[in-house]
Specification:
The protein has three domains: 64 residues, Alpha-Beta Plaits; 111 residues, Orthogonal Bundle (Arc Repressor Mutant, subunit A), CATH 1.10.10; 98 residues, Roll (PH-domain like), CATH 2.30.29. 47% of the residues lie in helices and 21% in strands. It has eleven helices and eleven strands. The strands form two sheets. The chain has a seven-stranded mixed sheet, with helices on both faces. A four-stranded antiparallel sheet has the order 2-3-1-4. A hairpin with a 2-residue loop joins strand 5 and strand 6. Helix 3 crosses helix 4 and helix 6 packs across helix 8. The longest helix has 22 residues. The protein is flat, with a radius of gyration of 24 Å.
Length: 287
């Protein structure tokens, strides 16, 4: 057995750790330590880094060998950790001090190198990532803007709003409206249904063996005859309907309706065809 230290790009969440861990173990590796961006493993002599890189590349991960690239990834992960720290702690610490301590290098050195390689400052990258987190919290719709400001360490709601508009070009209220208008922002199944009905999806479709039927039209349709123009999946069990998916369907004659399913996908062949049809169209949208 030999020891390998792997520096891995694009590990950004706990699920990434799980995926990487599973794939490494599938290759026969014993995991000594694993965290975002790094793993130390014991492997058979025959298992090469090239083979590991090829396996991880399938999931969008990349093995890093260049020292500067490794340092850039450490800085980005450090900024992610800093934002997470802001959410969990009231302790005040400057980003520069946090990164210097976490990475173990002088902040001025890190700052100059980051600007040189990435083409923007650490501060700008941090601001963009913090605004990304604001977007996520807005979408979750569990906190008001004042609570988001406190959670992410903004000095005031006004400062958050100003920074949000400077980065995105939109006010927070305009951003919410754009998200809703683009059919990407629904708090729950009920809101999605109401809005889609208003947009003309008035007919109801149901499964029928290997096709879909619309009793309102007294007609049955093959999947190939339909266009899947909308798709939403609600993973949060917030509605009485539980976990559900909504398909927005259009016939060749321009008639629009909805197919609602509780995600148990009893007719797997039928829903595989629906998924294939969806991939040919606009793609999946999350509620």
């Amino acid at each position: 057995m030999k020891t390998l230290n792997l520096n891995i790009k694009n590990m950004v969440c706990p699920r990434c750790i799980l995926v990487v861990k599973n794939e490494l173990e599938e290759l026969g590796a014993f995991i000594s330590t694993i965290q975002l961006g790094h793993a130390t493993i014991q492997v058979p002599e025959t298992l090469t880094k090239d083979k590991i890189a090829s396996r991880l590349d399938t999931y969008g991960f990349e093995l890093l060998e260049d020292k500067e690239e490794i340092l850039m990834e450490q800085i980005k992960l450090g900024i992610q950790h800093y934002i997470e720290m802001l959410e969990k702690s009231t302790k005040e610490i400057m980003l520069s001090d946090f990164l210097a301590h976490e990475i173990g290098k002088n902040y001025n050195f890190l700052s100059k190198l980051f600007s040189k390689i990435e083409g923007l400052t650490i501060e700008t990258y941090y601001i963009n990532k913090r605004v990304d987190r604001v977007k996520e919290l807005i979408k979750y719709d569990e906190l008001n803007l004042s609570e988001i400001a406190v959670k992410l360490g903004y000095s005031s709601v006004h400062y958050l709003s100003s920074q949000f508009k400077r980065v995105t070009g939109l006010s927070v209220s305009d951003y919410k409206e754009v998200m809703k208008n683009e059919n990407r922002y629904y708090k729950n199944l009920s809101e999605a249904l109401g809005d889609l009905r208003e947009k003309g999806y008035t007919y109801n479709f149901n499964r029928k063996e290997d096709c879909l039927e619309c009793k309102d039209l007294c007609a049955s349709f093959q999947i190939e005859e339909l266009n899947i123009s909308e798709f939403y999946r609600f993973d949060e069990n917030e509605d009485a309907a539980g976990k559900s998916v909504i398909y927005g369907i259009e016939t060749k004659d321009g008639l629009k309706g909805l197919l609602i399913d509780n995600s148990n996908l009893q007719n797997k062949a039928l829903f595989r065809r629906l998924s294939d049809k969806l991939r040919d169209g606009s793609g999946e949208k999350m509620g």
